[in-house]
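Q&A log
Question type: sequence-to-structure
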Amino acid sequence: MRLLLLPLALFALPLLEIATFIYVGRHIGVGWTLLLVLVSAVSGALLLKHQGLDALKRIAAAARNGEDAGRELVHAAMIVVAGFLLILPGFLTDILGILLFLPPVRELAWKLVARRIVIVTTRTTRGPRPEGGPRRNAQIIDLDADEFSTDRPKPQDGKADDEDFRRLP
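Response status: OK
Response body:
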């Protein structure tokens, strides 16, 4: 049933957008309607640029601090989708795009989606930590070139976490 809704929505969206164009055009005029579409496209591009760069900075900061950047990655993806929705001509997609730019709406969408997706992140120990010292409980193993492999073990339960990557077969 859910798979049927996506093609139906993709078919209905252009029809609803055309109907909205006709409705808005009748009430404010064709010129103002076209100007609104142009302003929303330019606004979407500018918001995408500025908010997208801010999201990238937050992702980089989370990665630098050793935090999980999964939430920030999803927010950045929603910002990109919001920008593209604003760039597309249409009032319904503009409304959805503006809503996705609002942090409370993105947070609500994240809470609804977080249960259904799995974000796998890995932490690397390249370079010194910001404090300058080694990681707590760090274990250093010196290997020769023939003893080293980049193959990672497969998760035992189908869900990957940091412990799966630390275990050796």
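Response note: Residues 10-114 form one domain.
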